[in-house]
Structure of UDP-N-acetylenolpyruvoylglucosamine reductase:
Amino acid sequence: MKLEENISLASFTTFKIGGKARYFTRVREVAELEEVALFAQKEKLPLLVLGGGSNVLLPDEGFSGVVVKMDVLGIEFNETKKGTEIVVGAGESWDELVALAAQKELWGLENLSGIPGTVGGTPIQNIGAYGVEVAELIVWVEVFDPKTGSMYRMKKNTCKFGYRDSVFKHKAKHLVVTRACFLLAKKGLPAIEYRDLREYFAKQRSAPQTPSDVRAAVLSIRSKKFPDLTKVGTAGSFFKNPIVSKGIHARLKKRYPDLVSFPAGFGKMKLSLAWIIDHVCDLKGIRVGDAGVSGQQALVLCNFGNATAVDVRALAEKIISSVKEKTGVVVEPEVRLIENSTQ
Ligand SMILES: Cc1cc2nc3c(=O)[nH]c(=O)nc-3n(C[C@H](O)[C@H](O)[C@H](O)COP(=O)(O)OP(=O)(O)OC[C@H]3O[C@@H](n4cnc5c(N)ncnc54)[C@H](O)[C@@H]3O)c2cc1C
């Protein structure tokens, strides 16, 4: 274990925001986690696990515990009766994995193309895009428990996956994901029911034949929706789309006939928060310091220069209270708002 001290965390996040870590270490071998956990326990310091830092807002004052950057690598393909299983280290780049699967003509991950971050970060909020959630592909998640030093596999059904949610955000938030196993199919059908994808292929006057065709479409659509991470700091969609009862949906639809929404199962409706922010709250272009709403998509908050976590939180609060005031709907952040010394 190589411990570094007072390391600036901003460059380890896509928001480019965050103070210094009291201690910082890169974990390349799963066995190193035990050493890190023992050190943190001995020093009575909290742990913060970072993957690609693409779904976190770190505090300006930094983190006065131990930040563990997960760099555990490795990709293994196993043929099974059910399909091709891929066992992947938590530190692998998610999008490189998706590209590799598409290149091998394996179906399943292609709709999740272009999402930044690591493989270990994907089960935490059950990443989803263009009609697919990673939970659909996960077989098991291997975890390390820093409290007990034990390592074990959690089957998909024990991960309690939901909309941008899992047990790793609640009861199991202290666990460190070390590897995950995904089941992919050699023969598959493109999942292009999602409106943007349907429209893309209708415009092309062609149907996708391979996972790479779908990947190319998703990457093209995403390039117009998300800012260029090399130029602007962001953690993608800052908020979850609210899920409401059919009654609330009907009331809002009466007031705002153009309201964009989707069935969310169990008699509920998912509202397009981007539409509400743009058309009901009229918050286009709103800024707090250098933090602002993206011109490409209102769900995306950006660091346009030297924004602080305080700026981003204040901007988010403005949006949350405006939506509540205008629609009565409660908005939750999708991005993990990290507090100093806690998780
Ligand atoms: C431009 C952009 C577009 C995006 N688009 C999407 C999208 O379409 N769909 C979507 O769902 N998300 C999207 N995201 C959000 C983000 O990319 C995903 O949530 C990603 O999976 C986060 O992975 P990460 O490795 O960066 O996690 P981090 O940001 O490093 O961490 C996120 C949380 O997970 C925890 N964590 C990370 N790794 C581990 C681990 N190994 N073990 C235990 N805990 C861990 C952290 O402690 C933290 O609480 C987008 C983000 C950006 C910047």
Remarks:
- The pocket of flavin-adenine dinucleotide is lined by residues 14, 48-56, 70, 90, 115-118, 120-122, 124-125, 127-129, 176-177, 226, 229, 234-236, 336 (CB under 6 Å).
- The two ends are 22 Å apart (CA to CA).
- Residues 309-327 form the longest helix (19 residues).
